[in-house]
Amino acid sequence: MNTVIERIPPGSPKHMNKNWVIKEEIKENQSLLAQDWSSFTDFYKRGCVYVIKDKENTILGFAIVNDNDYLSLIAVLPSEQNKGLGAELIGNIKSEFDFFYLHVRQSNEPAIRFYKEMGLEKTGSVKEYYDNCDTAYVMSYYAY
Fold first, then answer.
1. What does R_g of the chain's alpha carbons equal in angstroms?
2. How many domains does the chain have?
Protein backbone atom coordinates (compact mmCIF):
# COMPACT_ATOMS: atom_id res chain seq x y z
CA MET A 1 0.00 0.00 0.00
CA ASN A 2 1.33 3.41 -0.91
CA THR A 3 1.11 5.66 2.12
CA VAL A 4 2.43 8.98 3.28
CA ILE A 5 2.87 10.25 6.82
CA GLU A 6 2.06 13.88 7.49
CA ARG A 7 3.64 15.47 10.57
CA ILE A 8 1.45 18.06 12.25
CA PRO A 9 3.26 20.31 14.73
CA PRO A 10 2.00 20.93 18.28
CA GLY A 11 -0.79 23.45 18.57
CA SER A 12 -2.48 22.64 15.28
CA PRO A 13 -5.99 21.16 15.24
CA LYS A 14 -5.50 19.94 11.65
CA HIS A 15 -7.37 16.64 11.07
CA MET A 16 -8.44 16.55 14.73
CA ASN A 17 -12.11 15.85 14.01
CA LYS A 18 -11.30 13.10 11.49
CA ASN A 19 -8.88 11.47 13.92
CA TRP A 20 -11.49 11.68 16.69
CA VAL A 21 -13.84 9.66 14.46
CA ILE A 22 -11.14 6.99 14.02
CA LYS A 23 -10.57 6.84 17.78
CA GLU A 24 -14.30 6.55 18.44
CA GLU A 25 -14.67 3.75 15.88
CA ILE A 26 -11.95 1.81 17.70
CA LYS A 27 -13.65 2.51 21.04
CA GLU A 28 -16.97 1.23 19.70
CA ASN A 29 -15.59 -1.86 17.93
CA GLN A 30 -12.77 -2.89 20.27
CA SER A 31 -13.57 -1.27 23.64
CA LEU A 32 -10.22 0.56 23.59
CA LEU A 33 -9.24 4.24 23.54
CA ALA A 34 -11.85 5.49 25.98
CA GLN A 35 -10.61 9.10 26.17
CA ASP A 36 -13.30 11.76 26.21
CA TRP A 37 -13.31 14.73 23.82
CA SER A 38 -11.70 17.09 26.34
CA SER A 39 -8.77 14.74 27.04
CA PHE A 40 -8.36 13.93 23.36
CA THR A 41 -8.25 17.58 22.27
CA ASP A 42 -5.83 18.43 25.07
CA PHE A 43 -3.14 15.94 24.10
CA TYR A 44 -3.87 16.39 20.38
CA LYS A 45 -3.11 20.11 20.56
CA ARG A 46 -0.09 19.64 22.88
CA GLY A 47 1.46 16.84 20.86
CA CYS A 48 3.13 16.26 17.56
CA VAL A 49 0.61 14.33 15.44
CA TYR A 50 1.61 11.83 12.76
CA VAL A 51 -1.18 11.09 10.28
CA ILE A 52 -0.90 8.17 7.86
CA LYS A 53 -2.82 8.54 4.58
CA ASP A 54 -3.32 6.44 1.47
CA LYS A 55 -2.65 7.62 -2.11
CA GLU A 56 -6.17 9.13 -2.24
CA ASN A 57 -5.29 11.26 0.81
CA THR A 58 -7.68 9.32 3.06
CA ILE A 59 -6.61 9.26 6.71
CA LEU A 60 -6.03 5.67 7.84
CA GLY A 61 -4.58 6.30 11.28
CA PHE A 62 -2.54 8.56 13.49
CA ALA A 63 -0.21 8.75 16.47
CA ILE A 64 0.43 11.52 18.99
CA VAL A 65 3.72 12.13 20.80
CA ASN A 66 3.58 14.74 23.54
CA ASP A 67 6.40 17.06 24.56
CA ASN A 68 7.63 14.72 27.27
CA ASP A 69 8.35 11.95 24.70
CA TYR A 70 5.12 10.18 25.62
CA LEU A 71 3.29 8.29 22.87
CA SER A 72 -0.16 9.15 24.17
CA LEU A 73 -2.16 7.56 21.38
CA ILE A 74 -1.80 5.44 18.28
CA ALA A 75 -4.85 4.46 16.27
CA VAL A 76 -5.50 2.78 12.93
CA LEU A 77 -8.94 2.34 11.38
CA PRO A 78 -10.23 -1.14 12.28
CA SER A 79 -10.66 -1.95 8.57
CA GLU A 80 -6.98 -1.09 7.97
CA GLN A 81 -5.44 -2.85 10.98
CA ASN A 82 -2.89 -5.65 10.51
CA LYS A 83 -1.61 -4.11 7.28
CA GLY A 84 1.59 -2.61 8.67
CA LEU A 85 0.28 0.93 9.15
CA GLY A 86 0.94 0.98 12.89
CA ALA A 87 4.47 -0.23 12.20
CA GLU A 88 4.92 2.62 9.71
CA LEU A 89 3.77 5.14 12.30
CA ILE A 90 6.08 3.71 14.99
CA GLY A 91 8.96 3.55 12.49
CA ASN A 92 8.48 7.21 11.66
CA ILE A 93 8.42 8.14 15.34
CA LYS A 94 11.56 6.06 15.97
CA SER A 95 13.33 8.00 13.20
CA GLU A 96 12.67 11.27 15.07
CA PHE A 97 13.03 10.22 18.72
CA ASP A 98 15.88 8.47 20.51
CA PHE A 99 13.49 7.70 23.35
CA PHE A 100 9.75 7.54 23.87
CA TYR A 101 7.42 5.63 26.14
CA LEU A 102 3.76 4.66 26.42
CA HIS A 103 1.22 2.87 28.57
CA VAL A 104 -0.56 -0.28 27.41
CA ARG A 105 -3.18 -2.37 29.17
CA GLN A 106 -1.63 -5.43 30.79
CA SER A 107 -4.51 -7.43 29.28
CA ASN A 108 -3.91 -6.16 25.71
CA GLU A 109 -1.59 -8.97 24.59
CA PRO A 110 -1.76 -8.16 20.85
CA ALA A 111 -0.62 -4.58 21.52
CA ILE A 112 2.16 -5.74 23.86
CA ARG A 113 3.41 -8.17 21.18
CA PHE A 114 3.27 -5.42 18.57
CA TYR A 115 5.27 -2.98 20.70
CA LYS A 116 7.87 -5.65 21.47
CA GLU A 117 8.19 -6.35 17.73
CA MET A 118 8.73 -2.60 17.25
CA GLY A 119 11.66 -2.67 19.68
CA LEU A 120 9.98 -1.40 22.83
CA GLU A 121 10.53 -3.11 26.14
CA LYS A 122 8.55 -3.29 29.38
CA THR A 123 10.10 -0.87 31.84
CA GLY A 124 7.49 -0.76 34.57
CA SER A 125 3.84 -1.04 35.51
CA VAL A 126 1.19 1.18 37.05
CA LYS A 127 -1.59 -0.44 39.06
CA GLU A 128 -5.11 0.85 38.50
CA TYR A 129 -3.94 3.16 35.70
CA TYR A 130 -7.14 2.92 33.67
CA ASP A 131 -10.66 4.02 34.68
CA ASN A 132 -11.71 0.39 35.13
CA CYS A 133 -8.71 -0.16 37.46
CA ASP A 134 -6.72 -2.19 34.90
CA THR A 135 -2.97 -2.24 35.34
CA ALA A 136 -0.82 -0.64 32.63
CA TYR A 137 2.62 -1.66 31.52
CA VAL A 138 5.04 1.12 30.75
CA MET A 139 6.85 0.30 27.52
CA SER A 140 9.84 2.29 26.33
CA TYR A 141 11.93 2.68 23.21
CA TYR A 142 15.63 3.50 23.46
CA ALA A 143 17.64 4.07 20.27
CA TYR A 144 20.94 3.71 22.12
1. 14
2. 2
